[in-house]
Amino acid sequence: MAMKSTTAERARPATEPGTLVLLCVAAWAIPGAGHFWLGRVQKGIVFLVALTMLFVMGLVLQGRLFPFDLSEPLVALAAFANAGLGLPWIAGRALGLGSGVVTAVTYEYGNCFLIVAGLLNFLVMLDAFDIAVGRK
Amino acid sequence: MSSHLVLLILFSLPVSAVFAALARDEPREQLRTGALMFAGFVGAAVALGWLMLPFPL
């Protein structure tokens, strides 16, 4: 099955504000979901696999899912970056994963993986938005 | 899992893939861009590592 498709063949995205909001929420919640929605299946698969892999590796490396602690600005910023991954982040928090082991050799590596995964998903979400409004 | 190089490779693979998919539309171009970016990540890390070798910790 060919996944590549021309712009003309792709489903025309709806540009109503409500649909755009839903698209962005879906793209935030599940990495690649926005691209799946817009018919960019191949890109959606890349984002889903790569970002989920980054997130899981971050947890395996004893990284921390930071809390929103506004008294510590850097912690709050890290929490905002973590939250970029949507449902995996919510599931991780709900299951008590990502408590972080400060003494682990890989702690900072794990934090880096988790933070970058979230920030990249924000970029992916913006890309889906740009496609939906016809900028790409 | 504590080797810096292995972790660098594990990090740069998905990051290169995401950036390549964001920047290019055609799968062949994505593959090329992703491979270049991955080589850049690893190559730059190795080169900087060698450059920093003479410096004390």
TL;DR?
The complex is a heterodimer of chains A (136) and B (57). With 136 residues, chain A is mainly α.
Structure overview:
The complex is a heterodimer of chains A (136) and B (57). Chain A has helices at residues 17-29, 33-37, 41-60, 73-82, 87-94, 107-132. Chain A is an all-alpha fold. In chain A, helix 4 crosses helix 6. The model of chain A is unreliable at 1-9 (pLDDT under 50). Chain B is an all-alpha fold. Chain B has helices spanning 4-23, 27-51. The longest helix of chain B has 25 residues, at 27-51. The radius of gyration of chain B is 14 Å and the shape is elongated. Chain B starts with a helix and ends in a 6-residue tail after the last helix. The mean pLDDT of chain B is 92.
Indicate the low-confidence ranges of chain B by residue numbers.
none
The pair of chains with the biggest contact is: A-B, 24 and 15 residues
In helices, the fraction of residues of chain B equals over 70%
What is the chain-wise order of helices and strands of chain B?
HH
Structural class of chain B: mainly alpha
**Rg measurement of chain B, Å:** 14 Å
Count of distinct strands of chain B: 0
The main pleated sheet of chain B reads as: none
Q: Counting H and I runs of at least 4 residues, what is the number of helices of chain B? A: 2
Quick check: average pLDDT of chain B?
92
What is the beta-strand fraction of chain A?
under 5%
Could you state the order of secondary-structure elements of chain A as H and E? Answer: HHHHHH
Class derived from helix and strand content of chain A: mainly alpha
Query: What multimeric state do the chains show?
Result: heterodimer
- The portion of residues assigned to helices of chain A is 55-70%
First-last Cα distance of chain A:
24 Å
- Average pLDDT of chain A works out at 89
**Percentage of residues in DSSP E strands of chain B:** under 5%
Q: CA-to-CA gap between the ends of chain B?
A: 23 Å
The general outline of chain A is elongated
How many DSSP helices of chain A? 6
